[in-house]
From TrEMBL:
GO cellular component: nucleus
Disordered as annotated region, ranges: 30-69, 534-574
Highest taxon of the lineage: Eukaryota
Lineage: Eukaryota, Fungi, Dikarya, Ascomycota, Pezizomycotina
Compositionally biased tracts (Low complexity): 44-69
Protein name listed in UniProt: Chromosome 3, complete genome
GO BP of this protein: DNA-templated transcription
Subcellular location: Nucleus
Length: 624
């Protein structure tokens, strides 16, 4: 399957506004080639022999448990995958996917050896083959069956938690999300989290070998990172309370492969000794924690639960945490503003730096009173215009840095390198922020806007190339395509703005609590937001007689007469606009709503002063 779009070859010397076109051409011209395994067999065998004892014992226990009638029936019903099919997929997984934070929890030498010996956990083997196949468009007629059989094996032994079961579940959850089975992925994540705490994976286990200990840690942290696929900053959907995590952060790959005991520190500094150097893998996990905390602050402000003093004190604390984290990185893991030409960055290092900049974007975005998001700007009205302008400049600077990281990654990395799921989130938001920053600047025409569009196009091409297969990111990709095209149309029609609004279709709104809908504001990529869950609480009691329906069953929120909003094909509310091109909500991708205080927002937004038409609420999809 082709995973890129063709772009015109252009020289960087043709125009200064085309700075990203060489990168974009490489992005479009490169192909997704298969990488053969370059691992040294002898070193793999020795590493496997040194680490086989703790995990092999668990494998033997798991295998012996199939002696009972039920479990043996399950295993016998599943056809074994051919060795010649499994090994290439497993090798491809370790060569290309395991560097990503989401898939770094398996030990290559151990898993590869068990594949050869045919002692690998059956559910894990099938899940590995399924997720690798969907990433690289392999075995399209088979991977769905493998995923289903792996899940069947897992659920048949529901009451027997194991590290293998959690690892297989992690792969299956990512698979279900990629193929669009969002409700199944969401529910399965909760089950995997239950297994993890049942095995006390949130605590250290000092009596294990270095490899078994690190596999255990990485499995837990991959599950922790999975939470960002569902929600950010919502306590009710947390898989783990950070205060109950007493586990060290993941170590670097070189230490993992060489089986060394390494002190990496904890999620929250203060729970143990802090290392002098923080590796990219540990830093990435800690950044996920910081970003969630920032989004909790943003949600508190949005719900008017925090004042200006809280905002500034929290901002200073986050700035300090982010600066401290950066200073703990090794010199080789730093990303200098200059002198980094031609340097190849590992996928995990690139993801870590993008997350660091995205943390700043999320923090300073709170102060962007013109930005079409549901921030109650009455909270920040006490800040002077010059201070808000400074926050805007900082936010846009970090968005630009994300684009630079993406550009450098494409130019200097191999075609076989992949990007983590989080890179798509960073690319999406940086593109929107850059378009917003240019549109609201004094010089929003000509070369400035053309360059902003080229940067946003680069972000879109990254998402298209690396995540074309992902149904989870399809809405994000389509939304960014629309926003980029809208800006192109706006530039082309500066003298003639008579452009028709996007056509709409209708779909019923989500059948969930309106209070929850307003408070939660899920991101555009959220599995929870894309799941078609229905609150059927009304069915728990008999329906009232027709004459009593209004007085008996109508809630205050239902009693307020309001016209049903127009919806698009994805169930999203749309604006009714007299001038869709000049409306910043359309230009920056806001098209439907979640009940924010827009009176204050519109009153303080300078770019809204000349807008005619109706204002709808701002949606949750942009609150990542």
């Amino acid at each position: 399957m082709s995973r890129h779009k063709s772009l015109s070859r252009m020289s960087n010397h043709e125009s200064p506004m085309l700075w990203g076109y060489a990168t974009m051409y490489k992005l479009a011209g490169s192909t997704t080639t298969e990488a053969s395994s370059s691992r040294d067999d002898s070193s793999s065998k020795s590493a496997s022999q040194a680490t086989v004892s703790p995990e092999l014992q668990r494998s033997s226990i798991a295998s012996s448990s199939t002696s009972n009638a039920t479990n043996s029936t399950v295993v016998e019903d599943v056809t074994a995958l051919p060795y010649e099919l499994v090994v290439p997929l497993v090798n491809q997984f370790f060569d290309r996917m395991s560097p990503l934070p989401s898939f770094s929890f398996l030990h290559q030498a151990t898993v590869t050896q068990r594949c050869r010996d045919k002692t690998i956990d059956r559910a894990l083997e099938m899940a590995l083959c399924a997720i690798t196949s969907i990433y690289f468009d392999k075995h399209p007629e088979e991977h769905a069956k493998w995923a289903q059989e792996a899940e069947h094996l897992i659920l048949e032994r529901l009451e027997e938690p194991s590290i293998f079961k959690i690892q297989a579940s992690l792969l299956l959850i990512r698979y279900r999300a990629a193929v669009g089975q969002f409700p199944r992925a969401f529910i399965m994540a909760g089950l995997a989290a239950r297994w993890a705490v049942a095995l006390r994976l949130n605590y250290e286990h000092s009596k294990l070998t270095p490899v078994a200990q690190e596999v255990r840690r990485r499995t837990f942290w991959s599950l922790y990172l999975l939470e960002d696929s569902f929600c950010v900053g919502l306590k009710e959907f947390e898989l783990f309370d950070p205060d109950t995590i007493y586990l060290q952060l993941p170590c670097e790959d070189v230490d993992f492969l060489q089986e060394r005991y390494i002190s990496t520190g904890y999620l929250q500094p203060g729970k143990g000794l802090e290392p002098d150097i923080l590796g990219p893998r540990a830093a990435f996990v800690r950044l996920a924690f910081i970003r969630r905390s920032i989004m909790r602050l943003s949600r508190r402000i949005s719900m008017k639960e925090a004042n200006l003093s809280d905002l500034f004190s929290s901002m200073e604390r986050f700035q300090t945490d982010l600066l401290r984290l950066k200073t703990k990185l090794a010199l080789c893991d730093q990303y200098p503003d200059s002198g980094s030409q031609g340097v190849r960055r590992s996928p995990q290092c690139a993801a870590m730096h993008m997350s660091w900049h995205q943390s700043h974007c999320n923090l300073y975005r709170i102060f962007l009173t013109e930005y079409p998001e549901p921030t109650p700007h009455a909270t920040v009205e006490g800040i002077s215009a010059s201070e808000r302008a400074l926050m805007k400049d900082k936010c846009l600077f970090h968005a630009e840095q994300i684009v630079k990281l993406l550009s450098d990654f494409i130019q200097h990395n191999n075609d076989t390198d992949l990007l983590d799921f989080d890179a798509a989130i960073c690319a999406y938001h940086s593109a929107r922020l850059i378009l917003f920053g240019t549109y609201t600047s004094k010089d929003n025409k000509g070369p400035s806007m053309q360059m902003a569009i080229s940067k946003a196009q680069l972000c879109l091409d990254v998402i298209t190339r690396y995540f074309r297969f992902s149904e989870q990111l399809r809405s994000m990709r389509q939304e960014l395509e629309r926003v980029v095209q809208q800006h192109k149309s706006w530039v082309a029609s500066l003298d003639n703005r008579a452009i028709a609004a996007t056509g709409t279709t209708h779909k019923s709104p989500p059948k969930l609590s309106k209070d929850a809908y307003i408070r939660q504001r899920l991101a555009i990529h959220s599995l929870l937001g894309q799941s078609d869950f229905v609150d059927d609480s009304r069915d728990a009691a008999p329906a009232p007689p027709p004459e009593q329906a209004l007085s008996t069953t109508e809630s205050p929120e239902d009693g307020q007469a309001a016209p049903e909003p127009s919806m698009d094909g994805d169930g999203r509310e749309l604006y009714l606009l007299n001038d869709p091109i000049m409306d910043p909500s359309i230009l920056f991708g806001i098209s439907y709503g979640a009940g924010s205080d827009l009176d204050a927002w519109a009153h303080n937004a300078a770019i809204m002063q000349g807008i005619n038409g109706y204002l709808a609420d701002v949606d949750e999809q942009y609150m990542y």
